[in-house]
Design a protein that fits this description.
This protein is of the alpha+beta class. It has 5 helices and 12 strands. It is elongated, with a radius of gyration of 18 Å.
């Protein structure tokens, strides 16, 4: 492993440790967006860099994330920033699918994946199906690969490669149909999504 590979591995290890130490943000003041027709059931919010830096972190939650980040930068000699985070809150009858591109799985932390791109897709479903996990992963792949800006509607006209409405876009894994045509027989409705890309700015949250 070369020096760059060693630094990448070290940074990954640090990120895994911090993930285990962080507490979930409890404050509703971070909420910046609520799906209008689901006010009582579904909400989504973001944390910016300043809010993230103040999150309690450390083995005993004795410090803040910014303190842990400063220690890691000093140890690795590489600059790092935590720019934004997202949270979603869903009730029964909803499912949150996820996908991380080029995922690195942590051997020590359950359900943790690290990667350059990631997506969450919030779906509403009338019944819990065994296939939901695979469906959520495929929808997440589409969000990562096609980078939609909004969900759109099943009634929207099909668009081309430049289309920004998710349901009207050519389905990433089968461009002969739209994503809406793929989703419709699955018995779920796409409610919302969140897309992350390593290196993007905080302004990305403003488009979601």
């Amino acid at each position: 492993m070369d020096a760059q590979g060693s630094r990448t591995a070290a940074a990954t290890t640090w990120a895994q440790k911090v993930q285990a130490q962080l507490v979930r943000p409890p404050s509703p003041c971070s909420e910046v967006g609520v799906v209008e027709d689901q006010l009582s059931t579904y909400s989504k919010g973001f944390l910016n860099s300043s809010e993230l830096s103040e999150l309690p972190a450390g083995p005993e939650k004795e410090g803040c994330l910014k303190d842990q980040l400063a220690l890691a930068i000093g140890k690795l000699g590489e600059n790092m920033t935590c720019k934004r985070a997202a949270w979603v809150k869903v009730p029964a009858g909803f499912y949150v699918g996820s996908y991380v591109h080029g995922a690195m799985h942590s051997p020590s932390l359950h359900n943790l994946e690290l990667g350059k791109y990631g997506a969450l897709v919030v779906c509403e479903t009338s019944e819990r199906k065994a296939s939901l996990e695979d469906l959520g992963r495929r929808l997440g792949q589409h969000v990562v690969g096609m980078a939609p800006l909004s969900v759109g509607s099943l009634d929207d006209e099909p668009g081309g490669e430049a289309e920004t409405k998710m349901l009207s876009q050519p389905y990433l894994l089968d461009p002969s149909i739209t994503l809406g045509k793929y989703v419709q027989p699955q018995g779920v409705s796409v409610v919302d999504f969140v897309r992350f890309e390593c290196g993007e700015g905080e302004e990305a949250a403003e488009t979601e």
